[in-house]
Amino acid sequence: MSDVEIQSAVKKYGRFTAVDSLDLTVSGGEFVTLLGPSGCGKTTTLRMVGGFVRPTSGRIRISDEDVTDKPPQKRKVGFVFQNYALFPHMDVARNVGFGLRMANRERSEREKRVAEILSMVRLGHLSDRMPSQLSGGQQQRVALARALIIQPSVLLLDEPFGALDKQLRDHMRVELRELQRSLGISTLFVTHDQDEALSMSDRIVVMSEGKAAQLGSPSEIYERPNSKFVAEFMGHSNIFDCLVEDVSKDGASISLNGVGFFTNSPSARKGSRMTAMIRPENIEFADSGEKRGDATVAATVAGMEYLGSTVQVTLSLEAGISLVARQTNTESATGSKLRTGQNVAVRIPPEAVRLL
Amino acid sequence: MSDANQKFKAWWLLSPTLLLYSLTFLLPVLLLVVMSFAKFENSVTEFGFYLGNYRKVFGDGITLLIFWRTVKLSVYITVACVVLGFPVAMVMRRAGPRGRLWLLFFIVSPLLTSIIVRNVAWVLILGRSGIINDTLREWGLIASPLPLMYNSFGVVLAVVHVYMSFMVLPIYGALQAINPSTEEAAASLGASPLRVFWFVTLPQSLPGLAAGCTLVFILSMGVYLTPVIMGGNFVVTLPMLITDVVRNQYNWPTASAMSLMLLVAIGAMVLVSSVVQKFGGRH
Ligand SMILES: Nc1ncnc2c1ncn2[C@@H]1O[C@H](COP(=O)(O)OP(=O)(O)OP(=O)(O)O)[C@@H](O)[C@H]1O
Ligand SMILES: [Mg+2]
Fold first, then answer.
1. A182-236 tens-digit pLDDT
2. Local confidence band at A336 (pLDDT 50, 70, 90 cut-offs)
3. Which of A44, B145, B174, B190: disulfide with A18, CB 3.0–4.6 Å?
4. Which positions in chain B touch A89 (Cβ < 8 Å)?
């Protein structure tokens, strides 16, 4: 039993392929996010599920029923548009009740359900406002209530928080997720914001040029990206091409432009060129004077960026390698006391280095 | 800067327009009002406060009849423009840039042709021995020519043809301003295409529709030459009557009273339309 099934869906616009044989199943109240850079086909995918775009090939199934040839009005999906798309000529109650009206429900039932769902999104007091009299966050909640009232099999959201400011956005994330959990409705969510995806999703599909580059849980995607593209897109800064020089039982030694590192990443193959990712938060600063032999690397502080709770240090290593380290900003942390131009010794533990 | 200040500034910008309007509109209307209370006897106009012109206009039976006929014709024309023009505007909205340009050209083209040429062409097409009647007779489909002109039908057809663009363009403008996602949202909430149109597209296009109706209605109330050619003496409208009163009887006072009647009717239409534009479309 699946709520949505996308089966090798392809969408071509002329010669251009917007979505390229994508497979995805969402079921059991799962929250799945389509994440990717602009133009990678997220909206197109969502619109294919919603019935606004016909796939060039492949099938779309909703509640185990093939809906590929069905128009949107026969699909029972709740679609929340990026710009909310509220009906500007109807007040909040009529906007929200529209789906029930189209289902020819009795007025009394409609009014009761509208009141219920409006109180659920905490908008009960605004039911006779016009959309133009609402704030962005309120419009967002109306759009959500309007989509949910028809009790859709799946909720589709296209960058619903794109137009909101940061604070409201964080707040709405939590609110949407709580609502979605309590209703147990399977959800397909589109965003190009990796923080949003990481914080909300059960699973993430990272898309690149119409294809699914990686599919997995937020921690899988973040900690074990399967490609340079995913790693870069997830905001990792230290990504290098490297040569695997030697592989042993407990790890491998690799070389970045001649600078040697040690990694316990399992995927190493001797002699192969691979992509290495070094996690900024795992880089340690050796205290001045302390020498730990071959485990440390000499570096110069090229720049410091204060980010509030953390400090980001750009280090310049030999052979022109530039490395970013992130330190928690506490009184005792060495990293936060550094100055630009200072020479330091950094330790890069084997578990900080991942081979992709 | 305060709001009040900005309003004042905006009003300033209107001053050249206001000046032009007072010279070309308000002043003549004032003259019309004064003239409508003048007395016309034995070809002599005597100014004063004489109600005889209005008594005549409302009492002679014929003027009011012609007035209502003019209103009725204008309503027919407006309705026909809506029925024919709305789909055109919808197609224009969906069309690509090239198709849109062609449609626009097609709709505006009557305005680019001389009124005489256009109406002569209609005579050649619709007349007793015009293209349509000749062809139908040749095919033996009719025995005597169909009355396609020198009646209300001919007048409405020809006027609709010219004024169509005044309906299509405002509607197209309003449709263009509709966020297509609102229509998609309605569809995903279970609305069939017909209901999407009725509940979402149409209400949002009402401002354009009202503007189009106002323009076409006003223009139709004042149209002169087309009914003269297409209706002959069989469809006399108020502008034709006014022209006759001025030109043949030199009776400016009565003509003024009739003109004011026309003006008030048009003013009423504008009022109704502005109310519709303000409150219409709300569900
Ligand atoms: N109707 C269309 N005709 C032609 N190309 C289209 C059409 N719709 C989308 N595309 C193309 O398909 C690709 C994917 O578009 P899509 O809107 O799905 O991207 P997206 O991932 O949602 O991007 P964004 O984050 O910018 O919203 C884009 O390159 C876009 O130019
Ligand atoms: Mg998009």
1. 999 999 999 999 999 999 999 999 999 999 999 999 999 998 888 889 998 988 7
2. low
3. A44
4. 203-204, 281-283
* Whether the Cβ atoms of residue A109 and residue A100 lie closer than 8 Å to each other: yes
Residue whose token pair is 């491998």: A252
Which residue of chain B is at minimal alpha-carbon distance from A157?
Answer: B185
Q: Token match 């004489």: residue?
A: B50
CA distance B277 to B139: 50
What is the model's pTM?
0.83
**On the CB side of B222, how many CA atoms lie within 13 Å of its CA?**
13
Which chain A residues have any C-beta within 8 angstroms of a chain B C-beta? 50-52, 71-73, 75-79, 81, 83, 85-91, 94, 98-99, 102-103, 146-147, 150
d(CA B154, CA B221): 16
d(CA A33, CA B270): 53
Mean predicted confidence (pLDDT) in A69-87: 93
Q: Are A254 and A268 in contact (CB under 8 A)?
A: yes
CA B247 and chain centroid, separation? 24
Q: Of the candidates A300, A346, A350, A319, which has an alpha carbon nearest to the alpha carbon of residue A257? A: A319
Q: Give the DSSP H or E segment for A26.
A: strand A16-26
Phi (first) and psi of residue A241, to 5 degrees: -85, 135
Identify residue B112 by its one-letter amino acid code.
Answer: L
CB A216 within 8 A of CB A25: no
**Which position has the token pair 């003027």?**
B63
For ligand 2, the distance from its centroid to the CA atom of residue A42, given in whole angstroms, is: 6
Residue A301's closest CA among A347, A352, A267, A340? A340
Question: Which residues on chain B are in Cβ contact (under 8 Å) with A158?
Answer: none
- Residues lying with their CB under 5 A of ligand 2, a single-atom ion: A 43
Contact B183, B90 (CB under 8 A): no
CB contact under 8 A, A89 and B204: yes
For the segment A292-303, what is each residue's pLDDT rounded down to a tens digit?
445 678 888 888
- Distance CA(A242)–CA(A262), nearest Å, equals 12
The whole-angstrom separation of Cα B207 and Cα A319 is 68
Two tokens, residue A341: 């131009």
When mean pLDDT is compared over A31-35, A228-232, A259-263, the highest value belongs to: A31-35
